[in-house]
Amino acid sequence: MGHYTEKFLQHLTQVKRYASHTVIAYGNDLKQFEFFLDTHYGIEGCHQASAAMVRSWLADLSLRGVARSTFNRKASALRSFYKFLEKSAVLDTNPMLKVSSLKKERRLPVFVEEERLNALFGQSGLNRGFKGLRDHLMLELLYTTGMRLSELINLKHHDIDTRGLQLKITGKGNKQRLIPLLPGVVDTYTSYCREKTRTFGTDAEPWVFLTDKGKKLYPVFVYRRVNHFLGMVTTRTKKSPHVMRHSFATHMLHHGADLNAIKALLGHSNLAATQAYTHTSIERIKNIYKQAHPKA
Asked: Which of 4, 189, 192, 277 is an active site residue?
């Protein structure tokens, strides 16, 4: 990997605070582009590429049937990389200024119905011992705050204000936001902290959530736990932590929450991202209409 590419990835990790999986994905994208430049043009570094070379690589990806979302992520990796080089005074001209992404396909957010999640939280095993309380608290926070997977993993005890019933979340771009906490969630947190101390002692890691061995959580661990528990109450194919975030936003909207309030809670930078949930709400209204109207 080229010198500038490594500095860019360090910048994403240390300054931009991007999630580890995003940094890895961007690194792999840039490696692929470097390989393409080397084999097709004899160029060893991405920083030497022209707009025509970038378009050539993206055209090659398109011809090979790369998914639209993957295509756009690779284009986004290049866009961020060349913007970094511009700010670092390495480049005079940004080749990505003449390159466009593909229009995204609109997909409705996948969510789990309220009654199914209520059934999940009613499981008695979720309140027993360190592992049970940890899993219960993970699921409760994902569903009642709408936080992202990376935000959950990086959560520390000083971020939780049990008296003020609020939670401080550090999201994308190191931006912070405050989220209200339900008293029941605070009760679960208090019980979990007692079990955590009993299991690992007072010198345990500062992170709220730990693995069975007392180490900081990692994305695959959380995904497996959430997938396991959602599999108990739903047959949906997608059963990820992000589905809990979608469920939070969708259920808030169904109960009359203001869209701007949901935007603030989710940490979205613009309202367009939050508006995706209105389509789910409209579909729900259509179904209710068909079932209830005598002429339907």
From this structure: 277
C-alpha–C-alpha distance, residues 129 and 191, integer Å: 9
Residue appearing with tokens 């730990």? 210
Which of these is catalytic: 17, 172, 225, 254?
A: 172
Q: Which of 148, 196, 246, 263 is catalytic?
A: 148
Residues comprising the chain, all counted:
296
| Averaged pLDDT in 10-residue chunks for the chain of 296 residues | 84 90 93 92 84 90 86 90 90 80 65 92 79 95 95 95 94 89 95 94 89 94 95 91 93 88 90 77 68 67
Domain layout of the chain by residue ranges:
3-98, 114-291
Backbone dihedral angles phi then psi of residue 124, each to the nearest 5 degrees? -65, -30
Decide if 172 is catalytic.
yes
Contact 152, 138 (CB under 8 A): yes
- 200 and 43 in contact (C-beta within 8 Å)? no
CA distances in angstroms from 92 to 47, 51, 84, listed in the order given: 11, 13, 12
Mean residue pLDDT of the chain comes to 88
Q: Does residue 17 carry a catalytic annotation? A: no
- Is 277 an annotated catalytic residue? yes
Q: Which of 47, 136, 239, 245 is catalytic?
A: 245
Among the listed residues 87, 114, 129, the one whose alpha carbon sits nearest the alpha carbon of residue 249 = 114
The reply to whether the predicted model has a pTM over 0.90 is no
Give the β-pairing of 166-170 and 176-180.
antiparallel
CATH of 3-98, one of 3.30.300.180, 1.10.1040.10, 3.40.50.720, 1.10.150.130: 1.10.150.130
What superfamily does domain 114-291 belong to in CATH? Intergrase catalytic core (1.10.443.10)
- Residue 79 annotated in active site: no
Q: Which of 23, 61, 70 is nearest to 40 (CA)?
A: 61
Q: Is 26 a catalytic residue?
A: no
- CA–CA separation, 60 and 52 (whole Å): 12
Cα 145 from Cα 165, distance rounded (Å):
12
